[in-house]
Structures are given as C-alpha cells and as structure tokens.
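Our consortium's second objective concerns turning raw sequence data into structural hypotheses that experimental partners can test. To show how far this objective has progressed, the report includes one record in full. It was chosen at random from the queue rather than selected for favorable results. The single chain below, 119 residues long, was entered without modification.
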Amino acid sequence: MRVTVLAVVLLDVALLALTEVAWLTLEVGSVPLPLSILVAAVTTPLAVRVVDRCFPGSRLVFAPLVTWFVVVVVFGFWSPTGVGTFPADWRSLVLIAAGLFPGVWMASRPVRPSAPVEV
C-alpha cells in the first residue's frame, strides 16, 4: 500500500509541475500574475510530508523534490516546438526556488510519530 501511495504522490507532483510551468506566464493585462509560484511553494512540502509519513527516516523523502525539479526543468527549457515555456525574467528562477526550498526544509524536519504509522 505504501508503494502505491508513493506512486500516486510522484504522479501528482509531476502533473503539478507541468501545470505550474504552463501557468507561469499568466498575466493580467501587462502585469505578471505568477500564482503557480505560490502553488509550488505550498504543494511540494505537502508531497514531501506525505512520503515522509509513509516511509519515515527514508531517503525516499527526496523523490517528490527530484521528480518535481526534473519535470520543471525539462518542460521549462524544452518543448515540442523548440524553445521552452520559461519566461525570460525572474519568474522561472523564483518558481524553482519556491518549489525546492520549502520542500528541502520539510525534508530536513522528519516526522517523528508518537505511535507507529500504519498504512
């Protein structure tokens, strides 16, 4: 059951990364509205926490972060039409930082359950 949870979390993280890259260029008028940066900052730590609850003390806690980073970088710099979808400004760097830093911070704070977690 825990492996199924891990697979679902990794699929969710990959789909979220695709969506965040796609919506990074959202603008209202001529003002950038990068809501996907906020979504990345909230969802990657949650994914890390779910994996940490299923596999406490394991290095699998970094699997959502690696999956998210690879999908963001690959689809940010490459697309079927040639040039990727990353805008040529601050938003791409902030997206990567907002996804990785909270996730790494959450991974550095392992779950210490008072009772064994049964999944």
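The partners drew two points from this record. The CA atoms of residues 21 and 76 lie 6 Å apart. The chain has one domain: 2-107. Both points have been shared with the crystallography group to help prioritize constructs.
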